[in-house]
Amino acid sequence: MASRPPWSEGTAAYDETSLNCLDFVLSFLASVPEAGEAAAQAKDKVEFCRRFVLPATRTAARYICLRRKLLDLQGEEGGGGGTVSGALESSADKTVI
Q: Is the pLDDT of residue 34 over 60?
């Protein structure tokens, strides 16, 4: 007999550290053969985050930084001497998060 996953309807086993949404996602990925590398990495929370979550977070942070620079330049209305191309060039610098 197959056991029901702890997050099934009618269970209240949620725990913020050991049985949370990340655990659900990792369990789901591990059960989908077509998930490929993500399924293989889904066995370890830390490795999964290092391999998939952190790179996406870094990319998002770069775009947020670029947007803020562009909004600052737009707000200056030419008073600060900044240009959009200058903001783009400075955003190309390696932003480390």
A: yes
